[in-house]
Design a protein that fits this description.
Helix content: 55-70%
Distance between the termini: 30 Å
CATH class of the largest domain: Mainly Alpha
Radius of gyration: 18 Å
Strand content: under 5%
CATH topology of the largest domain: Rna Polymerase Sigma Factor, Chain: A
Order of helices and strands: HHHHHHHHH
Mean pLDDT: 79
Low-confidence stretches: 101-105, 191-200
């Protein structure tokens, strides 16, 4: 959605146009669900995240800042609801310390060398999803926002309410953990050590 189209949609949302809310919901619900599921790890909580996020967005749309992106604003609402649910589900446990030192991975695979056929393989996709689910919640959210949803690092940081450098640290740690956990499976499937034109990673 281009800037002009989004601005018109926001204006209609702020006027409480039911059709505009239907358009807004249809355009964003899958993204919100994926984030909710990635952080919470189950469909019931993901559904609750979706419901609570759109209710909160409806209530707060008049306060939407015109310089912001609608999707980023919505992601931020969803992310904070995920954190609230995590604290409710585990009231005596703190969220994992994402800034703590992580061990050096024993098996490190160069992801930039993945052939497209490997990345799109159904079995490989299932293995990757299972590995993502084992990440600590905040690292999982950073990985999904940046590498799955492919939102810019600055917006990813804004959604999480952290600095851009802290976001890069979380993302880097998530990738290291995934590489370690996927190294044995994918190590034998990568034919070339370096793929030409592969995307570069963010590093802290």
């Amino acid at each position: 959605m281009d800037v002009e189209t989004e601005a018109r949609l926001v204006a209609r949302l702020q006027q409480r146009d039911p059709e505009a809310f239907a358009i807004f919901f249809d355009a964003q619900v899958d993204r919100v669900y994926r984030l909710g599921y990635s952080v919470m790890g189950n469909r019931e909580d993901a559904d609750e995240v979706v419901q609570a996020t759109f209710i909160a967005a409806y209530d707060a749309i008049e306060r939407f800042e015109p310089h912001a992106r609608l999707a980023t604003w919505l992601y931020r609402i969803a992310y904070h609801h995920c954190l609230m649910l995590l604290r409710q589900r585990h009231p005596t446990e703190a969220l994992p310390d994402e800034d703590g030192a992580l061990p050096q991975p024993a098996a490190l695979v160069d992801w930039s060398a993945w052939p497209e056929s490997v990345a799109l393989d159904a079995e490989a996709h299932a293995v990757l999803q299972s590995a993502i689910a084992t990440l600590p919640p905040l690292l999982r959210a950073a990985f999904v926002l940046r590498d799955v949803e492919q939102i810019p690092t600055a917006e990813c940081a804004h959604v999480q309410g952290i600095s851009e450098s802290a976001c890069k640290v979380r993302l880097h740690r998530a990738r290291l953990l995934l590489r370690e956990r996927l190294g044995e499976y994918f190590g034998d499937r990568i034919a070339t050590p370096h793929a030409a034109g592969a995307p570069q990673e963010d590093h802290p």
